[in-house]
Amino acid sequence: MGSGPSSGTSIFDPVLCELAYRWFCPQGGVVLDPFAGGSVRGVVAAKLGREYIGWELREEQVAANREQAAMICEDAAPVWRCGDSREIGKEEVEADFIFSCPPYADLEVYSDLEADISTLDYTEFLEAYRAIVASTCAKLKDDRFACFVVGEVRDKNGAYRNFVGDTVAAFVDAGVDYYNEIILLTAVGSLPIRAGRQFKASRKVGKTHQNVLLFVKGDGKRAAGAVGPVAFATGDESASISLADDAFGQ
């Protein structure tokens, strides 16, 4: 999920960033992120030669991101806009890749700002979320990929809301095809202890993954061709991601 030094929230995986950019975004391409959160996705994009534009509502988070990028990015720096993602349609850009990790509804409330959609009930959240997805996809070039990292969330009664399915529906309704899914395994940590108590009380098993949803606008083969050959870190390039790992405490 979106993260950063000022928020105390979880840090987005920089290795997942590297793979996503190398596999799905052309070298030198423009990455558009409607839910920027922390600096990770922006910094890794810059280190890999992609232009990054991220939208983030919290001024203190944007300031922290810019400060961290200034310490890590020697060349072109990522760009963070401080504003409501529902205004992303005003962005004058044609994106080569959409990459984000949205708020998981009200699972984690990020601020008390009126425009923060994590403060809304699920119906209102979903309406705003769908509008943001549609506006962002409108900025994506034809024959290009989009990727959202999401997970399921539960309502107050403990039932799944089907946030993953709602995300897929939002993209499909925005004219972007559901193309593939990758399962990202997350650290087990204290889950075995917590899951044991949870299972006894509710018969719910523990969850140790997130859904990396891949979409394509246009033709998948042409989108893959636009990305070019699959590239992996070699030589000095690998050091740049190691630097990012160190900076983000991974």
What can you see in these coordinates?
By secondary structure, the protein is α/β, with parallel strands linked by helices. It has one domain (14-247): Vaccinia Virus protein VP39 (Rossmann fold, 3-Layer(aba) Sandwich). Helix content is 37%, strand content 20%. The protein is built from eight helices and seven strands, in the order H-E-H-E-H-E-E-H-E-H-E-H-E-H-H. The protein has helices at 14-24, 40-47, 59-72, 122-137, 163-173, 191-202, 220-227, 236-247; strands spanning 30-33, 51-56, 79-82, 95-100, 140-150, 177-185, 209-217. The protein has a seven-stranded mixed beta sheet, sandwiched between helices. Strand 2, helix 3 and strand 3 form a beta-alpha-beta unit. The radius of gyration is 18 Å and the shape is globular. The relative contact order is 0.16.
Strand content: 15-25%
Characterize the largest beta sheet: strand count, sense, and whether it forms a barrel.
7 strands, mixed
Spell out the CATH superfamily. Vaccinia Virus protein VP39
Structural class, from helix and strand content? alpha/beta
CATH architecture: 3-Layer(aba) Sandwich
Strand order within the widest beta sheet: 3-2-1-4-5-7-6
Radius of gyration: 18 Å
Low-confidence stretches: 1-8, 235-250
The total of helices stands at 8
The geometry reads as: globular
CATH class term:
Alpha Beta
| Residues in helix, % | 25-40%
C-alpha end-to-end distance: 15 Å
Order of helices and strands: HEHEHEEHEHEHEHH
* CATH topological fold name: Rossmann fold
The averaged pLDDT comes out at 84
Q: Domain count, please report it.
A: 1
Number of E-state strands? 7
